[in-house]
Amino acid sequence: MKAKALQALRPKAQWVLHGDELEWLDTEQSEPTEAEITAKIAELEAAEPMRLLRSERNERLANTDWWASSDLTMTAEQTAYRQALRDITDTYTSLDDIVWPEKP
Asked: Helices (H) and strands (E) in the chain — how many of each?
């Protein structure tokens, strides 16, 4: 997770992790402090459940994209299902407690 935090804090910076030890190689960007890294790790970890939820939702939407082809007409149930998938992040924040809409 430290690598992701570093990438988020200093995009395109040059650095190497040796285990948990950071070797800063970039001469253009300043090395982030441990406090900055720790805060970014906490932020990324807090956002992970929603990221996973959106990923699963997007996969389910992608599996029904063919319903919206120009030569097809979606049923009301199909339209409602896809809308329910798009709206799911308004109600749920992780995969742990989600109730998925039933696919028609």
From this structure: 3, 2
